[in-house]
Amino acid sequence: MIKHHPSQELLASYVEAELPVSLSAAIAMHVEMCPVCAEKVATITDERAEISFEVASGKPTDSKLENEAIELDLDAMISAITASDDIEQTKTPEQKTISIKGKNIVLPRAISNIPTTNWSNIGKLSRARLALDEGKVRSSLLNIEPGGSVPEHTHKGYELTLLLSGSFKDDMGEYVAGDFIMLDGEHTHQPVSEEGCLCFTVSDDAQHFTQGINKLLNPIAQFLY
Ligand SMILES: [Zn+2]
């Protein structure tokens, strides 16, 4: 069961389209997998729609005539929307399949249209970056082969991990597909994946490795960021 969800603030910013593409994609993918957050997003969307309608229609009027006029306009608006829906059917983006170490994986629709770099490998870790031009914010697909782990590290900025398939655990518990894990500099963790996993990660700064051999691990910090 999914235990880790985006905060209410993040969901609201997602509805308002205020987030960088990478975070927005992560939330879209989570919402696809999580009925609880899908419901929350629907509620926030309805609330925002009501607010913008109130703003658009101005102050409530006393005149019955004017109210009727507004209702008529609404009817016209709704039939216009319904009519245009009949003509323009929404196209669902095609899903992209990627191949990692001989395994084919279907990517969620939210990131299917974003080009990815080739895979780089260090031991049991493979990483492909998503070609998004977001400055310090970098997004990647991270694949961990069965039995693989990421050395213990903390975060200078934030690190978001959305588990797409498989599972991993750290000292805070076990994670399943759909879990949305947002960590900042206060957290230290060492993810280990027994069965292997594929994650979508967003990070706004290089990870800081906390084990004794920091210098040796620097290439991994760059690799993962
Ligand atoms: Zn959720």
Walkthrough of the structure:
With 225 residues, this protein is α+β, with helices and mostly antiparallel strands. The protein contains six helices and 15 strands. Strands 3-4-5-14-8-11 form a six-stranded antiparallel β-sheet, with helices on both faces. It is elongated and about 70 Å long. The relative contact order is 0.15. The site of zinc ion has 6 residues, from helix 3.
Secondary structure tally, helices: 6
* Bound ions, cofactors and other small molecules, one mention each: zinc ion
Shape label? elongated
Strand content: 25-35%
Low-confidence stretches: none
List the helices and strands and how they pair.
Layout: H1 8-15, H2 21-33, H3 35-57, H4 64-87, E1 97-100, E2 103-106, H5 109-112, E3 120-122, E4 125-129, E5 138-144, E6 148-149, E7 153-155, E8 159-166, E9 168-170, E10 173-175, E11 180-183, E12 188-189, E13 192-193, E14 197-203, E15 207-209, H6 214-224
Antiparallel strand pairs: 1-2, 3-4, 4-5, 5-14, 6-13, 7-12, 7-15, 8-11, 8-14, 9-10
Helix pairs in contact: 1-3, 2-3
Features of this protein?
single chain; 225 residues; alpha+beta; six-stranded antiparallel β-sheet; three-stranded antiparallel β-sheet; 6 helices; 27% strand; binds zinc ion
Give a summary of the structure in a few sentences:
With 225 residues, this protein is of the alpha+beta class. The protein has 6 helices and 15 strands.
